[in-house]
Amino acid sequence: MRWAVILAGGSGTRFWPLSTPTAPKQLLPLIGTQSTAEQSVDRLEGLVPRERILVVTGAALAGPLQRALRLAPENILVEPRPASTAPALIWATVEAGRRDPDAAVLSLHADWVIFDPEAFRRTAEHALDVARRHRRLVTVGIVPTRPETGYGYIVRGAVLEKEAWEVARFTEKPNTATAVDLMAAGALWNSGLFAWTALTLIEEIRRHTPELAPGLPLLDRGDVAGFFGKVTPISIDVGLLERSRAVAVVPGRFEWDDIGTWDALPRIRERDSAGNVVHGPAHLLDAQDCVVWAAGDPIVVSGVRDLIVVHANGRILVMPRRQAADLKSVLDQLPASLRDLP
């Protein structure tokens, strides 16, 4: 009765120019030889059978994902329009419940890096069990390793059972000082790995999410286009988890990274003796702590430090690593003829 929903609709703009509309971040081999989407499916082996894995994505990626992941076509759910995570997860959960009324659903993203698949499966199994036993929406919290300001944090409340707590509150993207205080208080990173039963999710949406609840009858009738046309785009965190009192957290004791920007690669890839991450035909001379990705002609990088240098798809990007999170805003300032990739 376990199902998994993999969200795979992102465009991956923060990995421009390597990422393209038909080969975004989740389809790129950013670590190893497999894409993160392929790793996400393989990681579920022994926990959720392939026939119970649903992937939510956009029309442009449906074909590439179906071929890469070797899932049945009916398990690739194509969104009529992007509407953030809550509508996608509700639709996929309703679909799992239609096929299996007792479905317990694990929700994850296609662009994560997780180095201990066995620990991931143990945690996911525990989250699914807690969701069923306590009729809760369960989030997996990762034990922080640094005062990360780009993540959300979960403050634990009362104990539900061993290794499971009520959620007292969420804190989204704190400053460094607040992040240090949250870590000292035992707060966890909000990973975005969730578990619930189909019945509990729909019940809580009806109670707490007016942006989406009016569209549920349309899904009951199988009118997916009507549902997406009617609802207000909203994330599952803002639209439900931060409002519901039926939210629990379990700890994830495994290394996890959502590789959100080029600057994340030094955390997940091997570095040379000078701290550089290098991929492809690149030659570095007196360079330190750089991220260099050559998917085209050879690159020579000399006498610099803390840079991102990428050559891919006929474009060259050079920027300071500390500004990696701002790449999307940089792209917004470029002419479409330069920014847009085939």
SSE layout:
Blueprint: E1 2-7, H1 36-43, E2 53-57, H2 59-69, E3 76-78, H3 85-99, E4 104-109, E5 113-114, H4 117-134, E6 137-142, E7 152-161, E8 164-172, H5 176-184, E9 188-197, H6 198-208, H7 216-220, H8 224-230, H9 236-241, E10 247-252, E11 256-257, H10 265-268, E12 277-279, E13 282-285, E14 291-294, E15 299-302, E16 307-312, E17 315-320, H11 327-332, H12 336-339
Parallel strand pairs: 1-2, 1-4, 2-3, 6-10, 12-14, 13-15, 14-16
Antiparallel strand pairs: 4-9, 5-11, 6-9, 7-8, 7-9, 8-10, 16-17
Helix pairs in contact: 3-6
Structural features, described:
Helices cover 30% and strands 27% of the residues. The chain is an alpha/beta fold. It has 2 domains: 2-257, Spore Coat Polysaccharide Biosynthesis Protein SpsA, Chain A (Alpha-Beta Complex); 262-339, no CATH class. The strands form 4 sheets. It has a 5-stranded mixed barrel. A 4-stranded mixed sheet has the order 12-14-16-17, with no helix packed on it. Strand 7 (152-161) and strand 8 form a beta hairpin. It is globular, with a radius of gyration of 21 Å. The mean pLDDT is 95.
Q: Overall 3D geometry?
A: globular
The CATH architecture classification of the largest domain is Alpha-Beta Complex
Q: Strand pairing plus helix content: what structural class? A: alpha/beta
Question: Would you state the CATH class of the largest domain?
Answer: Alpha Beta
Instruction: Report the count of strand segments.
Output: 17
Helix content: 25-40%
- Measured between the Cα atoms of the first and last residue, the distance is 41 Å
| Sequence of strands across the biggest β-sheet | 6-9-7-8-10
The third-level CATH topology of the largest domain is: Spore Coat Polysaccharide Biosynthesis Protein SpsA, Chain A
Q: Estimate the strand proportion.
A: 25-35%
Q: What is the N-to-C succession of helices and strands? A: EHEHEHEEHEEEHEHHHHEEHEEEEEEHH
User: What's the overall average pLDDT, rounded?
Assistant: 95
> How many helix segments?
12
Q: Cα-atom Rg, whole angstroms?
A: 21 Å
Q: What's the domain count?
A: 2
Largest sheet: 5 strands, mixed, barrel
For CATH, the homologous superfamily of the largest domain is named as Spore Coat Polysaccharide Biosynthesis Protein SpsA, Chain A
